[in-house]
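Sequence design from tokenized structure. All designs in this work follow the same two-part layout: the structure record, then the generated sequence. An example of the structure record is given first.
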């Protein structure tokens, strides 16, 4: 699997809301605040103590309000830059300003700057544990979304080692980094860890695990995950299609078809690819040609399938194998007209020849030759048979002479030519 950089876009930045700081008189006037629950209670790092000095308090409050209240990340970043550049700012103050600037830069889609700010916040080492490790997590996810999977993996593993965390979101982020780096076994194991430590693991985590199993040729494991998910969300179309793919990997096409038929009955097939998947499944199953026809016609009626070459080609073949020759001929004719090459026209000519429509078969084969076919000898053989049936012996002989020039029909053409002599 070549993982897309957006596969893990759902991993949100923490973007900690620093509304008040130690030394903020406004927070002191509000009285005693609820006891804080630590996000990383098992961290081995000794958290430094820090506070915003009174001379910088107003500037800090303006910065936070700009980011969180006024939704003005550009202003917040500008103030943060001033605080970072201030030689009198403490390590704590620089760390907080860099953290806010990193969040603001992310809001402004300036990823490179965001990475620099978060790194600065960590280097200054002035934040409490929750803010410090939260910034580390934000930096790792920003690196991941910027395709620096190696950096993200290193940072997330460091975060886990230094906090002894059982936070499923962090393990999920690390799993995402491993999978994006195509380290599938580590990604799968870490994703399973994320699921196991979470009280309520997200369905998307399970879906990613299912996809990872499929990408590593473990369809049985993928099916086990998918079937469990399906009991919770039976109308999740994407899940249905992924599970159907897993069934197909195990050659359990009946189960795959059953899933799609159930989705069809519940009105879940609402896109072109849904009907394409359904009629392809029917087409590859024995004796389901009439179902192919029904699915294609329904898709066309709903406006989800166009009467284009792929659709018409599938419909024509299904009609032919279902022995609905009138439909097969009509559809092949329509398909041949929209085919820029001659392959569909040659198939049309062959069906016509088999049905004794010799003059039309000859003309269709000539039209196919004019467009270009991969095996022109086959087109010349159709022409030869048609001319022979029409008692045009000299034309038949000439067509066989042409067919004898091509390896796919040389032996057959020469044998028939010898019968004319």
């Amino acid at each position: 699997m070549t993982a897309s950089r957006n596969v893990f876009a759902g991993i949100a930045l923490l973007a900690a809301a620093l509304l008040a700081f130690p030394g903020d008189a406004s927070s002191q006037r509000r009285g005693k605040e609820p006891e804080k629950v630590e996000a990383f209670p098992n961290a081995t790092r000794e958290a430094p103590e820090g506070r915003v000095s009174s001379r910088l308090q107003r500037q800090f409050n303006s910065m936070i309000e700009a980011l969180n209240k006024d939704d003005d990340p550009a202003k917040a970043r500008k103030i943060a830059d001033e605080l970072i550049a201030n030689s009198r700012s403490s390590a704590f103050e620089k760390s907080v300003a860099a953290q806010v600037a990193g969040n603001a830069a992310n809001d402004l889609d300036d990823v490179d700057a965001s990475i620099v700010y978060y790194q600065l916040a960590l280097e200054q080492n002035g934040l409490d544990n929750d803010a410090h490790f939260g910034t580390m997590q934000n930096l790792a996810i920003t690196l991941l979304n910027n395709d620096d999977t190696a950096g993200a993996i290193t940072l997330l593993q460091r975060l886990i080692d230094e906090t002894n965390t059982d936070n499923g979101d962090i393990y999920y982020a690390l799993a995402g980094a491993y999978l994006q780096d195509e380290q599938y076994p580590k990604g799968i194991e870490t994703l399973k860890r994320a699921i196991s430590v979470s009280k309520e693991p997200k369905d998307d985590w399970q879906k990613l695990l299912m996809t990872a199993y499929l990408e590593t040729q473990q369809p049985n494991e993928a099916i086990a995950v998918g079937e469990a998910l399906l009991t919770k969300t039976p109308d999740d179309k994407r899940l249905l299609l992924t599970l159907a793919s897993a069934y197909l990997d195990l050659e359990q096409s009946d189960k795959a078809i059953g899933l799609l038929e159930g989705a069809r009955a519940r009105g879940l097939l609402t896109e072109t690819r849904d009907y394409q998947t359904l009629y392809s499944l029917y087409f590859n199953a024995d004796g389901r040609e009439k179902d192919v026809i029904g699915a294609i016609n329904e898709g066309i009626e709903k406006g989800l399938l166009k009467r284009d070459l792929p659709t018409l080609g599938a419909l024509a073949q299904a009609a032919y194998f279902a022995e609905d020759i009138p439909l097969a001929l009509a559809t092949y004719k329509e398909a041949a007209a929209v085919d820029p090459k001659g392959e569909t026209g040659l198939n049309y000519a062959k069906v016509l020849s088999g049905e004794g429509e010799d003059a039309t078969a000859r003309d269709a084969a000539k039209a196919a030759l004019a467009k270009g076919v991969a095996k022109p000898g086959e087109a010349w053989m159709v022409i030869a048979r048609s001319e022979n049936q029409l008692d045009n012996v000299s034309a038949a002989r000439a067509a066989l002479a042409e067919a004898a020039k091509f390896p796919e029909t040389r032996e057959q053409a020469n044998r028939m030519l010898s019968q004319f002599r």
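Confidence is low (pLDDT under 50) at residues 1-34. We note this feature because it recurs in several other targets discussed in the main text.
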